Amino acid sequence: MLKEFTDWLLKLIEKLFLAVWNFLTDIFVSLLGEVLDAFVSLIASIPMPGWLTGGLGGVFGSMDGGVIWVVTQCGIPGALAIIGGGYAFRMLRKIFTLFQW
User: Fold this and answer.
1) What's the pLDDT tens digit per position in 37-77?
2) How many Å separate Cα 94 from the centre of its chain?
3) Are residues 67 and 94 in the same domain?
């Protein structure tokens, strides 16, 4: 009789501890979600510069013809294409390896 009572009391304490633990983890996850939402809204509220809204095509399109010739002769469009290709390769590699790298 006493053994059954102590087992019941032990299970009750265990369930209580588990419920408190789950409650605390839920509070932590909720607070973390609120903090991340606030961070996202803060980042989203930063205005984008006017010269960047058109992308690189808008930047290069608004340049003078002589400047575009110098930029082309320096190989900047090709360099930007290589950098973009490398970035795309890296993102695809991360996706295919399920973000393990």
Assistant:
1) 998 898 889 887 776 666 777 777 778 888 889 988 999 88
2) 14
3) yes
Q: How many domains does the chain fold into?
A: 2
The span from the CA of 14 to the CA of 8, in Å, is: 10
| Amino acid, res. 28 | F
- Angle, CA of 75, 78 and 81, to the nearest 5°: 150
Q: pTM of the prediction?
A: 0.45
Structure tokens at 40: 């996202």
3-state secondary structure of 9: helix
Quote the CA–CA distance of 60 and 41 in Å, as a whole number.
31
Instruction: For residues 41 and 79, give the distance between their C-alpha atoms in angstroms, rounded to a whole number.
Output: 34
